[in-house]
Amino acid sequence: MIVGTLWLIFLNTGIFSIGIIFWNRLWIRRFGIQIPGISEKFSSVGQVISHFSPILWNFDESYWIEYTGVEGYIYLLFQRYMISLLFIFTMISLFAAIPATFTNTTEEFTLMSTSSPTNMSSYTTWFQVGMVYLFSSAVFMMVFMLKKRVGTMLQEKAKERSHEKDHEWLKLRTVHVRGLDISDRSGEALATQMNSFLKDRGGRVVEVVLFPDFQKLIKLEIDREKTILMKNLFESDYPPPPVRCLPRAALNHEHYLLELDEIEKEIQEATMTPYWNSGHAVIAFNSLESVEKVLYHYRPSLRKTILLGLSNIIEKWKGLQRLRAFSATFERFPDDKDAAHKDIVVTRAVDPYDLIWVNVGGTRGFYFFRRVGVLFLAVLVLLFLSTPAALLAELKSIIGTDAQWFDNLPEPVENLVQAYFPSLFIIMLNQVLLVLIDISAYMERHYCHTDVQSSILNVSVVYLSLNMLIIPGVTLAATKSLVKILQDREYLLADILGELHLADSGAFFINVLLQKATYSCMFYLLRGPEIGMNYFSIWLGYQTRKDLNEHDKWRRDESQVFQYGYFYALMLTSFGIVMTFCSSVPLVIPAGLFFFFLKHSVDSFNLLCVHGKEIHGEGRLLRSVIFYASLFVLFYQISMIGFFALNELRIHSFLVFILLMGSILVALMISGRLYDIEKDDDEYYASIREDNEDTKHQWRKLYAHPLAISHI
């Protein structure tokens, strides 16, 4: 099996090398590569690698945060911790294989192949228990160290910014409000309500900014900028490269001049209609103490969610029964200073850099009906479109041992078909179906990029875990269907997961990791999504990305942002595969190391040289990642309990059960916030003494709508 694994690594490395050649021809030689901080532009893959490698090796914190943002730095830091962890796991497995091999009575057995009851000695069974304890402890230690490092970094930078700039100090004491009455246009009613609540609690409102309902206007503005770009690209004296999938009428600048005139007319009409507030606002308070009291009082609850849903229904019904009053200008539209803001939801404010302004709207700031529909769609995807793993059994019957059509093939080709293509089939079909998950997250209309990526992460990690780990692992262990296995095991979780270790499935999961690393990294290195979204034109994709990076960040579409959610889910699922089989199929560990090393190299380049700093979520995604990583450790322990129980090794099961109980407590302890600046009494009780108009002005500029000045 060791030789086979090395051969698979060599094969996938060769395939990725072909991708490097295409990358050099399609992107580097045509457009060159600009590495931030280096004035020279490189036009060969050798130059890019020689200059990029030292930057990646040194991994200077200030450099990477400056050019990729805090979220990008945390993402890459997580990968580096995983690489270090899997390297340690690999060394442990190599050293442990020596005594395990000599103490086993089966001549052909080695710990570097699948361990099963028929080939395990007494030493090996106890060794498995020891490995469960060792690997679980190592993961929790890694997670704790990562969380502490990131939390310390975030807290220090937050304090540093707030001490250097007063408006940054005020930003730490800002909350986001949704569910506002639409008739409050100035925010006076909201400020009055908050001041009334804080009057006897020693707090007050410093400043309020309401977000206007400019959804239609900002969509038109984004369309206008795209049209201007296309007009400029096609009016050059030198004809651009052919864009074969673009309609013939769209290949000249006159087409875009007409389109631009239509957009300008729509913008003019939109600016002449009255605007309401979007249901969103941000409020700055005088202290963190005031913020905590407001957050607790207006915290989300089941009752509030139901009432907000009913309010949305009433609002929609009223909108169908009567038309809103219109006036010719913004100034003549009434402002209800006594508007009652009932059942509002208050949360900590996100960084203004993270806002998706085109989604700031809805009915009183919410999209209840849309999200209920999308949730229903997501359930359908998870339940009925989880076809790759379900089709695996059918695929096995086609190319398995009962099939005769490949018997006349040369032996190397026959082995390749049986070992390589089932896992490749699952990976390719998964990639297609994951597009539906992305679309569903975009349809939910989240108001910040971090929430979009979090939604993709939550759905993708469940979907990928089912199709890349659980369903294939369980069905490979038996010829029965998954439903039949569930019935036979009486739906006992430990017994069902114990089936994962009964099949000789090591080669399959090693293939999954190696192929996913190769094809996913090659696809995103060649910037497949950008090519697809730009009529399959590399030239147009390059020009679009260049324009996005040089102009306003708020114009980015969700699909144009680095896909943190999907990539985190993919890495977590791969980590879950490694964790599940790390003690029974140790060769899965170097395969996982190959996956994370390749992923880290490609993602580092894309974040630094293609996407740059795009979102700013203060590490909220990492908190979810830590939670899921802990779940995979618990999943591993439960599967080992089931494995030992199925083979009547009760003492072993009991010892792992004790570890499981302790691991649950540890997982709960490390699942909290990355940092809590409120724990610092000096920060918590610090209060603004006098209102500085310049500070408030700078704070308002942070949260000002990008179109508020140019169109009002």
Shape: globular
Number of domains: 2
Q: What oligomeric assembly is this protein in?
A: single chain
Q: Point out poorly predicted stretches.
A: 105-118, 322-333, 397-405
Strand content: under 5%
End-to-end CA span: 69 Å
Structural classification:
mainly alpha
Number of strands: 6
Helix content: 55-70%
What characterizes the major β-sheet? 4 strands, antiparallel
Number of separate helices = 25
Strand order of the main beta sheet, please? 4-5-3-6
Give me a quick take on this structure:
This protein has 712 residues and is mainly alpha-helical.
How does this structure look, described?
- GO terms for molecular function: calcium-activated cation channel activity.
- This protein is mainly alpha-helical and 712 residues long.
- Helix content is 65%, strand content 4%.
- The strands form 2 sheets. It has a 4-stranded antiparallel beta sheet with strand order 4-5-3-6, sandwiched between helices. Strands 1-2 form a two-stranded antiparallel sheet.
- Strand 1 and strand 2 form a beta hairpin.
- The longest helix is centred in the N-terminal third of the chain and has 43 residues.
Please specify the SSE layout and strand pairing:
Elements: H1 2-31, E1 33-34, E2 41-42, H2 45-58, H3 61-103, H4 122-164, H5 166-171, E3 174-178, H6 188-198, E4 205-212, H7 215-234, H8 253-271, E5 277-285, H9 288-297, H10 302-321, E6 345-348, H11 368-384, H12 387-399, H13 411-443, H14 449-476, H15 482-488, H16 493-498, H17 506-525, H18 528-533, H19 538-550, H20 564-581, H21 588-611, H22 620-646, H23 650-669, H24 681-684, H25 693-703
Helix pairs in contact: 1-17, 3-4, 3-21, 4-22, 4-23, 7-8, 11-13, 12-13, 12-14, 13-14, 13-17, 14-20, 14-22, 17-21, 20-21, 20-22, 22-23
Protein name: CSC1/OSCA1-like 7TM region domain-containing protein
InterPro entries: Csc1-like, CSC1/OSCA1-like_7TM
GO molecular function, one term: calcium-activated cation channel activity
